Amino acid sequence: MNCSISGEVPEEPVVSTKSGLLYEKRLIERHISDYGKCPVTGEVLTMDDIVPVKTGKIVKPRSLTAASIPGMLGMFQNEWDALMLSNFALEQQLHTARQELSHALYQHDAACRVIARLKKERDEARSLLAQAERQAPLPASAATANVSALSNGKRESEDMGPGGKRMRPGVSDSIISELTECNAALSQQRKKRQIPPTLAPIDALERYTQLSSHPLHKTNKPGITSIDINLSKDIVATGGVDSSAVLFDRTSGEILSTLNGHSKKVTSVKFVAQNDVFLSGSADKTVRIWQGSEDGKYDCRHILKDHTAEVQAVTVHATNNYFVTASLDTTWCFYDLSSGLCLTQVEDPSNSMGYTSAAFHPDGLILGTGTTGATVRIWDVKSRGNVANFDGHTGAVTAISFSENGYFLATAAHDGVKLWDLRKLKNFRSFELYDQDTPTNSVDFDHSGSYLAIAGSDIRVYQVGSVKAEWNCIKTLPDLSGTGKATCVKFGTDAKYLAVGSMDRNLRIFGLPEGDDASTES
Length: 522
Prior knowledge:
CATH architecture of the largest domain: 7 Propeller
Distance between the termini: 72 Å
CATH superfamily of the largest domain: YVTN repeat-like/Quinoprotein amine dehydrogenase
Strand content: 25-35%
Radius of gyration: 36 Å
Helix content: 10-25%
Shape: elongated
Number of helices: 7
CATH topology of the largest domain: Methylamine Dehydrogenase, Chain H
Mean pLDDT: 87
CATH class of the largest domain: Mainly Beta
Structural class: alpha+beta
Low-confidence stretches: 138-158, 518-522
Number of strands: 31
């Protein structure tokens, strides 16, 4: 019989009267003095509960291999053979590791040479481009446009009014009439609005998975900060930390154009539904208007320099003739798209908070802005007056999205997402999705107003309910970038796919695989 502690035959066996277990006397005495309980059952145990067991003195037999000199020699030979085999295996592993290290060093050296050559070619190309720009004459039309867009240098002094403030032409009565007519037409259409039959059903969204991943931005400055989709052409635009904007054809899987010109990260990108125009805002305090051509290339038509701090958001009016930019300089600007002229720059003296997000209401007469001070400010576009403020968030308001139904507003901040009823001007639901160290970065209603997507450390899709009915989470998609930070999300046409940007350089498309899609439709 063996000791219950050591598992060996005891020299002085004792038995517990409580558990009946056999122990080595010296081991159980030490355990009782340290812990006062049975090592196996955990019961309270004292030395009074231990009874010695009397046994005859037995000499332990010697193993057969150690009973003779030939047996011992054979045992030594077996141990030597095992040692030699182990040594041979270690030498093989060392040789393999040396080969892998040599190959890795060769690849690293080759990669360094390629990078050095590419940098040299890049610098040469930049030099040639700068030389060509100095030599090329500026067209008269471009010169006229640039003069109207300039807001610094000699032209700036001519546009200054009393108090050093820049003079603005203002929003004329004809523009207000245009905005009002657009609002009336869209409001009338909204009353007859129906959910399109081609909208992706809930059971389809539940099966969404990653369809593709596309490395659009540079590796030395990874990170996608904003996304927009041209629904009519199925083109996805991304703005990156690498100070470029990329236009990507989702159908063909090819990059259509990479727009360079900003000197700092691109914070906001926006398509204009008409005339193949694209807008980009940047941390370099500028906004650029890009005009597309028949060959698919985009040229910078205007550079707007009306802000004095980072431009955080760009949003286009429903007429597609005007747009608004919001900046950390505590102002937002209302622009005429065709001329690139800032018609008015709105600054509230009572507000010292910079703007971090902005979006037009679908009808176009209401503008929503998020601030660094966790407040959502609602503006009347015609009067440029602040008509409502929504408080309750923690941290900067990172994103704003109006529902197509016209009376729901979703806002995202460090503490999660809040839903607001624009009819009663109150918060009716909040989603606190992540821990206190993980902000919510993006929120987006689909075009039908049936689904809501939220991006933070993952991507979540909710079915839109009502003020009283629950908003159910349909699907949670992981952030496959490995950064733990999904920065932007946007629904595709009929919510058939989701475009997601993260803090790596890849655009990810989530949706149904082709086979699954076909089975769903059937």
